[in-house]
UniProtKB/TrEMBL annotation, chains A, B:
Pfam families documented for this protein: SAM_decarbox (PF01536)
Organism: Colwellia chukchiensis
The protein, known as: S-adenosylmethionine decarboxylase
Top-level taxon of the source organism: Bacteria
GO molecular function annotation: adenosylmethionine decarboxylase activity
InterPro entries the UniProt entry points to: AdoMetDC-like, S-AdoMet_deCO2ase_core, S-AdoMet_deCO2ase_CS
PROSITE patterns from the UniProt entry: ADOMETDC
GO BP terms: spermidine biosynthetic process
């Protein structure tokens, strides 16, 4: 059984004094927005600064001045962004950022990044970049290009994306009947973010999502544990330096990506905590005109031993093919 | 401008005494077969043992007992295989092998490997494998599974696939007005296969294909030189040991794959000639039930420096997106 874990991601920042997304917009709006990409809201948690929705495909975070949505699987996230723009109006929006990772099963997606940004370009004048090589892991980023918005230097985001986790971790996380508490323990969330409010969900037959918030801080983890197409993403506005090192130990992925927005120490960050067993395959950095400095790095675990080939199911309905 | 260089490949072996593909089948048949996947024959060369057709998308080689076809771009090669099966009949066929590499632009392909082998499975009982990780370079191989065919141990094939060639090589190979002779010289074909009969073609605006034959031996090179999606494939039934080392020096790709059928010394082969600057990312070996032992290895050139992001064209018709 295969599932596309790789997320699309959108962040929209509004002209805050005009409207508070947290106080002035009710849940029905977010429910409708999420449904536009064929996802559903499963549950939510909130504090004074942030509301976090756990979705059937990933997560939605809402703050007073912005929202962030990540969706995986075969969702077409750009339709949710379009809904927001149509309902709220571009005159109240100061920044739209739309991002897409390379997928495991690009041929099974309902649209390409190019299709998505052609749709966005009907509403938003923007620029688009690719971070990483076309034949390897990469991230596409589209952002609104308007002189009125410049990101604050403390507006930081981190992504840690693990591919092909160890057989041991994959087996543990695909155990039948595994409970959320056991997964929290396996991921050592108590030690790592013990003071955050948590909301998590174990999917059937596999898969795990957790949203964590503390004031304006958020952290979200999505686990697609299936062997061959395993994928674990950690996204946060807290510095993932210590956390990513811990997750590398727990998951031992064959490959992982690091992405940062406005971590000006990204180069040293990557040097400092990554075990010497990993080798850097690709490194990209770019300062966008919206004042986000984006860093991307892909690492691999060199393989010496020869593995057997993967046997494929010809007759079955198999997204992997 | 982007072009999908990655090839699909099919080899079909017939029950030789019943028919000689080289002597009993005329060019109109091959023309029709090639048209089934929307490619055209550009030219051909032949000797007593082999006829090599240069195609608008890659190459077709015909021997007395088998043919081998490689097509790139958005061709749907499986339709050519289906045509052969329908025209010649499975009773005269002893082995069908169908292979597909991961594509740069999988979303732009008319079909997936899964679609292709579901079609083939209507005619051929077979097995399918994946060599290499799903999130990285990989090759899908489908082969007929029949007890009557066992490959001879001297029935060897080599593939050397270079991705992201050096800027210098890409610029040279995208020079306006570049002639075939200059490309042959750049690739040092005189030194490498000086005693082969050659047939080559320079595509407009870029791209180069060459077929080379000598007795039953063949070698074919296809060059997609465009920066970002550059791809150079070398396929041959002669040992690529020395040649691949030379091509690495000429092209300095950021990543390359080696694939062999029945090179029982594949592990040592890969150790011996590959510069220490390259790191092995994936290694797979498997003995198929048709008696081909297949080896696959993917290598990367570690990157220390940070590169700028690639700027994308939002409005343009851009296959890369």
């Amino acid at each position: 059984m295969f599932f596309e874990g790789s997320e699309k991601k959108a962040e929209v920042i509004i002209k805050a004094p005009l409207l508070s997304l947290l106080d002035d917009i009710d849940d029905d709006f977010w429910k409708a927005l999420v449904q536009c990409c064929n996802a559903q809201i499963l549950s939510s948690i909130r504090n004074h600064d942030c509301k976090a929705f756990l979705l059937s495909e990933s997560s939605l975070f809402v703050w007073h001045d912005r929202f962030l949505i990540l969706t995986c699987g075969n969702t077409r996230l750009v339709h949710s962004v379009e809904y927001f723009i149509q309902q709220i109006g571009m005159d109240k929006i100061q920044q739209v950022i739309y991002q897409r990772k390379n997928e495991y099963f690009a041929h099974a997606q309902p649209s390409s990044f190019g299709d998505d940004i052609k749709l966005l370009a009907q509403y938003v004048s923007g620029k688009a970049y690719r971070f990483g090589e076309l034949d390897s892991h990469h991230n596409y980023i589209f952002h609104q290009d308007n002189s009125s918005f410049k990101a604050e230097s403390d507006d930081k985001t981190y992504e840690f994306l693990a591919y092909q986790i160890s057989q041991q971790a994959s087996e543990k996380l695909t155990t039948v009947g595994l409970k959320a508490e056991e997964i929290r323990q396996f991921l050592q969330l108590d030690q790592l973010i013990g003071d955050f409010m948590l909301d998590d969900f174990v999917f059937d037959p596999f898969g795990y999502s957790v949203n964590a918030i503390k004031g304006k801080q958020y952290l979200t983890i999505h686990v697609t544990p299936q062997a061959d197409s395993s994928y674990v993403s950690v996204e946060s506005n807290i510095n993932l330096r210590a956390l990513a090192a811990k997750f590398l130990t727990i998951l031992t992925p064959k490959s992982f990506d690091l992405l940062s927005f406005n971590d000006f120490d990204f180069i040293n960050l990557t040097e400092e905590f990554i075990p010497a067993s990993y080798v850097s395959k690709s490194r990209v950095t770019e300062q966008l005109s919206n004042n986000y400095t984006v860093g991307f790095a892909n690492y691999i675990l060199p393989q010496q031993a020869f593995a057997p080939a993967a046997v494929l199911d010809i007759a079955g309905e198999n997204h992997a093919l």
